[in-house]
Specification:
alpha+beta, 5 helices, 8 strands, 20% strand, globular
């Protein structure tokens, strides 16, 4: 049955998290964010409204691509692939790299990456790092978690991406 002002069906339960669950999720994200800072040099911040761990592109760069391209890129880079984030719902991977540079201004690079649905993250944009809630829901996970503060150079990942795309 529906009541005035409500569109809920009788017996239907809310699937929205409770305030206690939201608070716990944000606390978990804060703890994870501290670990990223301390252990991996990833100086993100937690968005209090969403509980997401946001990392500004600059000191850390990123190359985003379809997972089907990411797999051979990871193999080509081998142990130098560094941290890689999976976005299972969209089928995309994000390779975290050393500091960003001006390569995003290179029109030939832009065209090469655009053709394969890849891109270099722009300075000042944000990457969302996996939080415990993201991993639990499968929304965002680590393909290769960060090891200490190692990240490959942006140019290395771009070169591997171009080489794999050319095959």
């Amino acid at each position: 049955m529906s009541t005035s002002g409500s569109h809920r069906v009788f017996g239907q339960t809310d699937v929205q998290p409770t305030a206690a669950q939201d608070f716990a999720a944000i606390q978990d994200a804060i703890a994870r964010c501290r670990g990223y800072r301390k252990d991996n040099g990833l100086y993100g911040v937690v968005d209090p409204a969403l509980g997401r761990i946001m990392l500004e592109v600059g000191a850390v760069g990123a190359v985003v691509m379809p997972a089907v391209l990411g797999k051979p890129v990871r193999e080509r880079l081998d142990s130098r692939s560094g941290p890689i984030i999976a976005h299972p719902r969209s089928g995309r991977w994000t390779f975290l790299t050393g500091p960003t540079d001006n390569s995003y201004l290179d029109m030939a690079l832009f065209a090469d990456l655009f053709r394969v649905c890849a891109s270099v993250a722009l300075p000042g944009s944000h990457i969302v790092l996996p939080s415990p809630t993201d991993e639990h829901t499968g929304y965002r996970t680590w393909i290769a978690p960060p090891e200490h503060d190692f990240r490959p150079e942006l140019a290395e990942v771009v070169a591997a991406t171009r080489a794999c795309a050319a095959r």
